[in-house]
């Protein structure tokens, strides 16, 4: 299935990049069928019309794909490298993440954040990953600079923070996830959360969890976290 | 802990890159303590001697870190992009993979394999990841061009192939892993395994498993597979 993304359901035209993909890469013709999602659960089966100047389509069938019975929100400190942040967004999207918040923490390298968290670019990467993995919901992606407000305002059912205090045993995230509900998982920067950040999170209902026996980079932890929440639904 | 890698235990000198890291980045001095691993479980606490032309050290204490009670082997078709193969190796190493075999399958793009699977570079990446995640065992990494022989000769306790035939329900890998033993997981290329490749694997004791509800890219599947095998040990 050739899946395309058009968030605005009043528009029945592919943008320049998708048009090129359609005509030059996939070599589709007028009358061929494509599928278009709006990234909010709508999936339309459409018939193409390859014009001289643009590619348009008309919907012949529409269905709404229901959301999953559970949701994954990852609030992660941005890494210092744009490509690692991009890799994280791509892989979390493949795994069906609903929401990604890049949270600036005490130990986040603030000078580079605006350069390494390019939201427009990250959303394009998420759109590609959504289409490639044949999903119909785009993750929401944002940058949060006020950690305290973010922690205070979160309303997920299950609140977890990836944190393993020295000499403490922490349970693996997969054992703390409540099935069929919303989970938010906080992942800190390379320099970890500060004790104050952890304390604030715990005062707001967050529990400390482990992501495994080995020490994972921030972006690996984010992906492992998503995967763990998916796996937990089967247990 | 500053962890360095020297596979040859007869050598007590850091190579050029590690010497530079030692003196210019970490700014260590003669008499400072570093730790050195040989990537085969040996961890030595050492005292540095920063010479004019090189950096040497002497071991003051040695311990052998036992291997885990279980092992992860991933046999994965190389992707077409060198950087995706490199990401895979880095993240699998962070997760403690013991063995990575890049297997050339029918649908692998053979013309690019030698360019996108640079074993020397991949081993350097694995060494960095091993040190960064504070582990003491280097994964073995190789390129396998004969799928049939590889399948015939494997001797892992649990043999799994990431494959979901149409209209069949396959169990998640996390439910098929036998704790405290060796697991090998085969992951196919973007174009999937051929029916013949799957048949041969099954004739050699491989069982089909799923890596989750969403469709993952090859490199994401490899990392999800490692993570699943780690998680399975806790269940």
From TrEMBL, chains A, B:
Keyword Methyltransferase: yes
GO cellular component: cytoplasm
EC number: 2.1.1.193
A matching Pfam family: PUA_4
GO biological process, one term: rRNA base methylation
Ribosomal RNA small subunit methyltransferase E PUA-like domain location: 14-56
Residue intervals passing through the bilayer: none
One function term, GO molecular function aspect: rRNA (uridine-N3-)-methyltransferase activity
Domain of life, source organism: Bacteria
Entries under InterPro entries matching the protein: Alpha/beta_knot_MTases (IPR029028), PUA-like_sf (IPR015947), RsmE (IPR006700), RsmE_MTase_dom (IPR046886), RsmE_PUA-like (IPR046887), tRNA_m1G_MTases_N (IPR029026)
Membership in a protein family: Belongs to the RNA methyltransferase RsmE family.
Function: Specifically methylates the N3 position of the uracil ring of uridine 1498 (m3U1498) in 16S rRNA. Acts on the fully assembled 30S ribosomal subunit.
Protein's recorded name: Ribosomal RNA small subunit methyltransferase E
Organism: Dyadobacter koreensis
Organismal lineage: Bacteria, Pseudomonadati, Bacteroidota, Cytophagia, Cytophagales
